[in-house]
Structure formats: C-alpha cells, structure tokens
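Q: I have 221 residues here and want to know how they pack in 3D. Can you give me a structure?
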Amino acid sequence: MKITPKILSIPPYLSTTWKNVTSLHVKPEGGLFTLVVLLQSQVQVEIPNLHQETIDEVFQAHARSALVEHDQIYPSMGPFTFSLPFSPEGGLKDHLASSMEHNPEQKDLPNLPPQVLEKISLIAKAFGIDRLPSFSDPAPSCNCAYCQIARSIKGEKEEEFVSDGELSFRSTWEIKQKSDKLYSVANTLDPTESYDVFLGSPLGCTCGSKDCEHIQAVLKT
C-alpha cells in the first residue's frame, strides 16, 4: 500500500495518480470502511475493509495533492496555507476544520484554480465540515482562500475578482470604442465630462495630456 500526495496505490484494487481521481466517498461496513474511488474514466473502484486510519490517510493525501497542483500552476502567487496535520489522537475532520479560517490579509488573493477548489470542497463536504457551527459564510468582497472555498462548498457562482484599483477605474469612467484606436471616455458621475482618447501614433487625449487617467482607463480595458 502506498498513499502519497502523488499516488494512491492499494493493491490489488487500485494504483493510480491523483490526477486520475475525480472523487472519493466512504461507506461504513461495520467497524471498517469501503472506499469508493471514481476515476476520470468514470470507472468506479471499491476498496473494502479499510480502517479509519487508512481512510484519514487517503483523504489527507488527496487534499495535499490539490495543494501541490495549485503550487505548480501558481508558483509565484502570494502565500496560501492550508495545513493538514495528522496525528492518531485526532481525526482528520478536526484538523481540516481548524485549518479553514477567514484571513482578511488574503482578501486580494487571485482566484484558485477550479480543480483545486473542487477537490478541497469535495473533501470538506465528505467530512461534514460545511455542517459544523464553526463553518461561517464567506465574507463579501473577500477573496482569501477560506472565502473562495466556502463559496465553492455553498455552491455560489465564482465571480471574476476585481481589485479595488480596477473597480475604481471601472466605476468612474465609461469607455466606448468609436473606431479603430479611438475611444470615448465619459465620467459616469458627470455625463458632461467626456474625452476622446487615441491609442495610435501619436498617443493623445482631448484633455491635452499624454499621461492622463483617461488614457490609463482605456489601457486598463
């Protein structure tokens, strides 16, 4: 038997990498458990007579595989911690619940890859994390790891994350393309204030400046 963040191997039933696994769930069988593994090929494999310790180890490895995949896709992204300590005294459910906390310092975190959110949400639901009293609703306008996972668990539609700076530009200026390289820029708070921006050569704006916020607003779109 080999259970790591890369491989799930429980002979003679199954030996594969986590990228081939779509979902996991468990069926209690007396004092033991049957692990049901659904593969990407839609083949379902049942592994019977497993102890609780093995089940915890499998789900822990599955969660860690999601984080490894995340780090490979977003190696330069800001800090994202989601620890899953394991000890024989406490179940994985307790560790998983305690590691999921709202973090305002990560409010501008980029969107996590959908496959990572799906895997972590799947594990959290399997252990009933979403039904614990400590599981709080995601904070509005926060994109920390916890809030992204909470939205995924609750089935909320993931929206494109927009930074405060981008939101400020979008809310202040309405931009319309008039022709090739020519744009109109109107103040949404004062319709009488409008400018034409040309992104060709020479670059310019009817406000008279070549380094104005109107040109920046068009470039940001």
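Q: Anything worth noting?
A: The helical segments are 52-73, 92-99, 114-126, 145-154, 164-172, 213-220. Residues 2-154 form one domain.
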